[in-house]
Amino acid sequence: MCQPCYDMPMETNELNDDEMQIWNMWKGSFKRIFGRVVKDMSDQTGLSEGDFGILDRLAQSRDGQMRQQELADSMGWDKTRLSHHLTRMEKRGLVLRKPLDTERGVQVLITSAGHSALNETLPIVSKAIRTHFLNHLTDHDIESITKLAERTKL
């Protein structure tokens, strides 16, 4: 496997075979684990990844509500995608939208049904993360992943 590339010139833009292999392994591993967690969650609760992300962000925000644009930004979604998704969630009673009184924009609120759905889902997601990821790691693996995540966060 490739050694850390600290001695490589900064202007090198191409990856060697070992570097490309480790990148593809990293991406593939993440996608498989994440996909299994999302599948377990969806199969057992009916919530999609997007539903969960929205409900989780709302539940963690001040008073269970966020401006729609702030929510879109936090999800990395454009305004149209979020609006369509929220329409579907409103029909299921998970969220409400209301215009802001003092300025332009829309406030998104989690409903009691949304809180209930999230509370039912959290243990399922936790179990899936443990089953598909954490149970496969040693303490040394966790330490290494933690160091890598800290070193590579932007």
Which SSEs are present, and which pair or pack?
Layout: H1 17-45, H2 49-60, E1 65-67, H3 68-75, H4 79-91, E2 95-99, E3 106-110, H5 112-132, H6 139-152
Antiparallel strand pairs: 1-3, 2-3
Overview of the structural elements:
The chain has 154 residues and is mainly alpha-helical. The protein contains six helices and three strands, in the order H-H-E-H-H-E-E-H-H. The chain has helices at residues 17-45, 49-60, 68-75, 79-91, 112-132, 139-152; strands at 65-67, 95-99, 106-110. A three-stranded antiparallel β-sheet has the order 1-3-2. Strand 2 (95-99) and strand 3 form a beta hairpin.
Which features characterize this protein?
154 residues, mainly alpha, three-stranded antiparallel β-sheet, 6 helices, globular
Number of beta-strand segments: 3
Parts with pLDDT < 50 across at least 5 consecutive residues: none
Tell me the structural class: mainly alpha
Order of helices and strands: HHEHHEEHH
Shape: globular
| Helical run tally | 6
Average pLDDT: 92
Query: How many whole angstroms does the radius of gyration measure?
Result: 20 Å
| Biggest pleated sheet | 3 strands, antiparallel
Note the beta-strand portion: 5-15%
Range of helix content: 55-70%
Condensed summary:
The chain has 154 residues and is mostly helical.
